[in-house]
Amino acid sequence: VEKRIQLSPRSVMKSYKTIYHDTEFAKLVTAIGANFSGFFIYVLASPVFLGKHLGLNPQQYSYLFIPTVTGMVIGSYLAKRAAGHYPSHQVLKLAYLWMCLMALANLVICYTQPVSMIANILPIALFNVGMAMCMPILSIAALDRHPRIRGTAASGQAFMQMLLSTVSAGIVVPFVWFSPLGLAWAMVVYIAIGLFMASKTQLWKSKII
Description:
The protein has a single domain (27-204), classed as Growth Hormone, Chain: A (Up-down Bundle). The chain is 80% helix and 0% strand. The chain has helices at 9-20, 23-44, 46-53, 62-82, 88-112, 117-144, 150-176, 180-199, 202-205. Helix 2 (23-44) packs antiparallel against helix 6 (117-144) and helix 7 (150-176) packs antiparallel against helix 8.
């Protein structure tokens, strides 16, 4: 009973003020949002990416969504297997290394290869393996920053992810969906933001977690 937080506008505003003044929390949730946006731009741009660039009809959109969801499932499974066996900061760094390699591979493919369904979709699906591997690590680290107001912290995390998704939908994607190369560059920029934010956290620098 004594751990309950009084439900009132004042207490709610105080809780949000607490989490958004926490720079460590802000870096963690921004990293989560940026990582997700590196993939989500392809979802937002799917009518153009799949329909115009890859020549697929709406009944063939599963050619993107099944592999990318499978990548997330595999990444989540690997994160579960790694939990308790390897330090979180090592898994996090491995996941970012993997995502960076896939983002760069995607960029190279767009520069050097003709547009094709397999070549342009496979790196996105493989990118999601790393994204799903590091997401629970970053999420738990963010929530653990404020154990007494985890609900508020969770909503703050969701808000940041929605904010970046909204920015992607309204500003970024319309400027980059002119070609697969534009989308590949957007993925690189987003993962660079995610890596920068994550590398500045205590979690990244930890030797014991």
